Known about the structure:
The structure holds two protein chains of two kinds.
Chain A: H1 2-5, H2 11-37, H3 43-51, E1 72-75, H4 79-92, E2 97-100, E3 116-117, H5 126-138, H6 140-144, E4 155-159, H7 162-177, E5 183-185, H8 187-193, E6 210-214, E7 218-219, H9 222-235, E8 239-241, E9 246-251, E10 257-262, E11 265-268, E12 271-274, H10 280-284, E13 293-305, E14 313-316, E15 321-325, E16 330-337, H11 349-362, E17 371-382, E18 388-391, E19 397-401, H12 410-423, H13 436-439
Parallel strand pairs in A: 1-2, 1-12, 2-8, 4-14, 12-19
Antiparallel strand pairs in A: 3-7, 4-6, 5-6, 9-10, 10-11, 13-16, 13-17, 14-15, 15-16, 18-19
Chain B: E1 3-6, E2 10-13, E3 18-22, H1 35-43, E4 51-57, E5 65-71, E6 77-78
Antiparallel strand pairs in B: 1-2, 3-4, 4-5, 5-6
Amino acid sequence: MFADTVCVGNVRDLILFTAVQLIYLDLSSCLMKLDLVMQKYSLFSLAKNALSGHRNWQQAWRSPPLRDQYDVIVIGAGGHGLATAYYLAKEFGTANVAVLERGWLGGGNIARNTITIRSNYMRDESIPFYVKSVAMYEGLTKELNFNMMHSKRTMVDVVQTYPKMRELRRRQLTMDIYGSTYEQISTDEVRRRIPALTGGGPDARLPIIGGMVHTDAGVNRHDAVAWGYARGADELGVEIHQQTAVQSLIRGSDGAITGVETNRGTVRAKKVVVAVSGHTTTITETAGLKLPLRTMNLTAFVSEPVKPLVDVIVNCPDSGFYFSQSDKGEMVIGGAPDMGQSFRRDIKQNVFEDTVTSMLSLFPAFKKLKLMRQWGGHLDIAHDASPIMSKTEVGGLFVTAGWWGGYKAIPAGGLALAHLVAKGTPHPLMSSFTLDRFKHLDFIMEAGTTTAR
Amino acid sequence: MLRITCPYCGSRNESEFLFGGPVGTERPDPNTTSDADWIEYLTVKPNPLGPVQERWWHARGCGEWLTIWRDTRTHDIVEAPNDTE
Lengths: 453, 85
């Protein structure tokens, strides 16, 4: 031990040595405490864990036992559910929250979309909300200490008809007011930016007449969004319970919500949030609540990975498809919805064929692409194609639904819903999107700004 | 692709038809109904996890409008449920 080697007379050295040791012990216990709270992902933690063969990474979130009472229950551990829980705990001090998920975390529509993040909407009510959401996405890697692989790569609309061009120019004028970027470009510029676009020439049935550029648009990694919010919410005390299917809502004698019935027993809470895109009416009808929503199925499929070919998001509204190339090299392609309501999670062959046919008319070289997977996201659409984030006539029951392209809305949607749940009044950015708008036929028509329907 | 039976043309491809929307509730008399019921009639449509009644238009065929029951979980065209006409 050091006592043997330190001369008794050298007291100053002894004190210095002990002090250094104490500081070291203090620091390492601090670090251990930090480890217990949440391990921060960094170059340092990566190097540290590499030395121990990556066997000591902490779990990203807990799996605590299900209690029978919480302040708030959020149904659905998807993007909106997890973001709402995160902001409830972080911004509004409500951490006694349970997120109940029927399947697995991030396995619903957050895994069944085309990761397009943009804010080129039409209405004064919509644009500021999406501008906020896009900005929050850009800062999300830092906010959640989780790499979102955000790629702000712009979106180019390929326009083939004059009515569509007029509509997009009209959107540009409104977007200018709210700080969202939209700009017209020539056909030559469209072709310069998208070299693979070889169809749509002067002899085509619908020649390309120009394009619009939305520089705010980007893509990121959907799993990271789900996992990042889950990890952040868990750290703040939120409990996430997977494999916990809510079967029905429970109302008290005064009509207000008192909890939910699940496959793991009854869980009580005075506030319940329904964030279950697609199945919203299935859940709310158990409380006798009817909503102006229909469930539909959107088409998406993905090709084999190929070399970098297209570095922007390409949207062809007149042909009815859009795509981007993922970091893995796959073409992630989205198309039109099925006609009619659908709770299926695959796509109809004829919708798939129509989408491919449109794509090949503009991108003939894609004929050689092998398509690897297809999926349908079933989502609910409101009467006016705008989202519903609202209190309901059932006291304590909140819904976030009608997100026709809700992936881009996750950060601001979670923040706004947390505000509504905590304070009881809508967030300023979402105050026009409550159920009250139907009472006054005060619709926010966005049908043209979402995927063709 | 659905195969829809038209009363005049028989079993035809879905691509010959246009979707006419789900069949909602009976149109209430606007002179006597309440505002709330009128709004509900305008905006709320049945959205069942199961058979839904809907209209289709044989637009690229004989032009007939027809009504079918279709299961939203499977896309199967089914018989009307027993508790409805």
